[in-house]
């Protein structure tokens, strides 16, 4: 169970470092806020979701194909062993 949650402190540290690295402070001491265009946020999030779904679909198909290939190889080996035993 420890392995399932061990990534949380690493993610928190990474996000905090990103926040501090991106901090912009002017000479007067006030921070300048950037306005993020929501259109680009939606485009980026959509692209990320499609890439993640595609990657997961590819991995699932590869695993299924490997399982099917292993089943065929195992069934061929079982038939060969039965023929050797019956001979």
Features:
single chain; mainly alpha; 87 residues
Task: Name the average pLDDT.
Answer: 76
Radius of gyration: 27 Å
Q: How much helicity do the residues have? A: over 70%
The number of distinct helices, counting runs of at least 4 residues, comes to 3
SSE order, as H and E?
A: HHH
Mind summarizing the main beta sheet?
none
Q: What is the overall silhouette?
A: elongated
The SS-based structural class is mainly alpha
Identify low-pLDDT runs: none
Instruction: Quote the beta fraction.
Output: under 5%
Give the secondary structure arrangement, pairings included.
Layout lengths: L1 H4 L2 H15 L15 H49 L1
Structure description:
With 87 residues, the protein is an all-alpha fold. Helices cover 78% and strands 0% of the residues. It contains 3 helices and no strands.
Short précis:
The protein is built from 3 helices and no strands. It has 87 residues and is mainly alpha-helical.
